[in-house]
Amino acid sequence: MQTLTEKRVFGAKTGVTDIFVSTDSGVAAVTVSADQIGAFGLAHRGSATAVAATGDRLVVGTDEGLLAADIDAADRSADVPDPTFAAIGGDTIDAVSAVALTPEGLIIADGDGVVYRGEHAETVTEPPAWERLGATDEVRAIDAGLLAAADGVYRIDDDGLTNTGLTDVRAVTGIGQPLAATADGLFRLANGWQSIADGAFRAVAADGHGHAHAVGDAGLLVRSADDGAWTTTTPPVEAPIVDLTADRGIVAAVTDDGTLCVTAGDGWRHQRLGLPGARGVAIGGGTDGS
C-alpha cells in the first residue's frame, strides 16, 4: 500500500484511472496514474466471470447473474472506488460468460452461448429490457461489435449475429482494424481474415490509434502505430497473461495468478494483487491531472 506522502503526489500531473480485474475471489479495483500502480481493493466480493467498465459505470458478470454499479470519479484523488451494486439481469440473464458496455447499452453472453442486448435504463438499479440476438458455441469475449466464440468471430448486427469465420477464437477487438486471437494464430480482418502470426494466442487489444498488443505462445506481440509492423517481445512477467485491454493511453494486462501489468508507453510496471484465478481486465474512467 502507499504511504500518505505517496498518495499526495500520486496522479497530481497525469490524473488517476480506474482498472478493474475479475477474479475467482471478486473484482479488484486498482488506481493507476500513467504507469504507476496505486491503491487497490475489492470492489465486489464473490467469484466474477467477466467485467466491463466505462467512465461512470461498472458491470460484473457472475455465475448467478449480472451486477452493475455507478462510479463517481469526481474529487476521488487516489482512493479506490467503493461501488454499490444492483442485480440487473432480471429473470433473463443467468450465468454470464462475457459482457461489454456500449454507448447504447450492454451486450451479454450467458453460459449457454446465448447473446442478449439491453439498452441502458434510467437508473442502474433498473434491469433493462433484454433482446435475444442469437446463440453460438462457447462465448469467450465481446468487444466493439465483435464476439469471440468457439465456432468463430461473430459480428453483432442490428438483426442479430453474423459469423465472419475462424474457429476456436479466444479474444477479439473491433477497435480500429479488427483483430482475433485464436488457437491457431493471430489474425486481422481485411479482405477476409488474414494471418499475422502462427501459434496459439490468448488475448488481444487495440487502442484505436494504431497501437495493438497480443499475447500467446510466441510471446507478447506489439504493433507500431507508425508503420503497422508487429514486434515480438518478452511479456513483463513469467505468469501467463489471460487478458489485455487498452484505453486512456494505458495498456493493462492481467495474469492467471492475479498480477496486474500496466504500461503507458515507457515500460511495464506490475503488481501482485493476491487474487488468483483472474479472468478479465477492464479500464474505466478516472480524473484528469493538473
UniProtKB/TrEMBL annotation:
Instruction: Tell me what this protein is called.
Output: HVO-0234-like beta-propeller domain-containing protein
Taxonomic superkingdom: Archaea
What organism is recorded for this protein? Halonotius aquaticus
Q: Which InterPro entries match?
A: Beta-prop_HVO_0234
Which stretches make up the HVO-0234-like beta-propeller domain?
A: 3-283
